[in-house]
Amino acid sequence: MEKVKIVIAGPRGRMGKEAVKLVMETENYELVGVLDHRHEGKNLAELEGFTNVDALVYTDIHKCFKEQQPDVLVDLTTPEVGMEHTVTALEFGVRPVVGTTGFSSGDLSKLEDLCKQTGLGCIIAPNFAIGAVLMMKFSQLAAKYFNDVEIIELHHDQKLDAPSGTAVKTAEMISTVREAKQQGHEDEKETIVGARGANYDGMHIHSVRLPGLIAHQQVMFGSDGQTLSIRHDSYNRASFMSGVKLAVDTVMKNDTFVYGLENIIE
Ligand SMILES: NC(=O)C1=CN([C@@H]2O[C@H](COP(=O)(O)OP(=O)(O)OC[C@H]3O[C@@H](n4cnc5c(N)ncnc54)[C@H](OP(=O)(O)O)[C@@H]3O)[C@@H](O)[C@H]2O)C=CC1
Ligand SMILES: O=C(O)C1=N[C@H](C(=O)O)C[C@H](O)C1
Asked: What is the pLDDT of residue 40?
């Protein structure tokens, strides 16, 4: 069986490191290169923590794709860089698997159009952890019965985007089934701006950032005399890797744009 040739963008990052490990440990995957804006021309093995990993480091994505002809790009960088990488990948005929969060709805539409034009598969997954995907699906189910909901997402204090990609995706999924409602009441007043969180379609999203946390989310529903809380916790980044593998395997077979792992899990 031919190996799936993979390029990882952001290999030194918290997620990138785990993804490198996953690719190295998976028999039918080959790490043909990495994209890292700081270490052109080196071998990954020369960088701290990658002693046994043989892969060329590129700063130039075009050069990397031309020389290595990868099948899949796994992007784990930042929103602006991730978007640039994903567009370039599709233009080059490389299938993107994107974990990077913070893309706008305009970005997603652009990528969907590019997929249609190129006929290539592309998977954008705001959360690769199976438990988080279930938490989102259970929340969507609960929202049919409860239209009052608050989303509380909690992350490590180095996170760039707020709200998290998972919180945005959860709100979007809930919105497809929740009876429209502007929560709160007309006399409600924030005495400190932001106290009620962000407003998505009338529901509120609260972003907590603390050292010690990794990635957590609680979705709370309330109605007369009862509340329902649905919570997921990731305690390490390895928790995301089975989802990365599922996405890579799926993107090699699919020719469509997928936003959210819930669309590809059985
Ligand atoms: N979908 C999912 O399940 C998950 C998604 N994420 C998302 O993944 C992304 C990465 O998260 P995380 O690993 O924690 O973040 P990190 O900050 O640890 O890693 C990001 C990496 O990207 C590198 N980088 C920045 N610019 C470039 C560039 N131009 N080319 C190549 N690499 C670049 C950074 O390098 P340097 O620091 O030197 O600038 C850094 O090593 C975030 O968007 C996060 O929200 C995170 C966890 C799970
Ligand atoms: O930055 C992170 O750490 C995470 N980002 C993703 C998000 O924004 O939802 C996924 C997970 O929550 C971890």
From this structure: 81
Q: What is the mean pLDDT of the chain?
A: 97
Tell me, using a 6 A CB cutoff, whether residue 78 lines ligand 1.
yes
Residue of 127, 151, 218 with the most ligand 2 atoms within 8 Å of its CB, for mutation: 127
How many A from CA of 9 to the centre of ligand 1?
8
pTM of the model: 0.97
Residue appearing with tokens 């438990």: 131
Question: Does the ipTM exceed 0.85?
Answer: yes
Ligand 1 lined by 126 (C-beta under 6 Å): yes
Here the contacts of 158-165 (C-beta below 8 Å, separation 24 or greater) are 159/209, 160/78, 160/79, 160/102, 161/79, 161/101, 161/102, 162/207, 162/209, 163/198, 163/205, 163/207, 164/101, 164/126, 164/207, 164/215, 164/217, 165/101, 165/102, 165/103, 165/126, 165/127
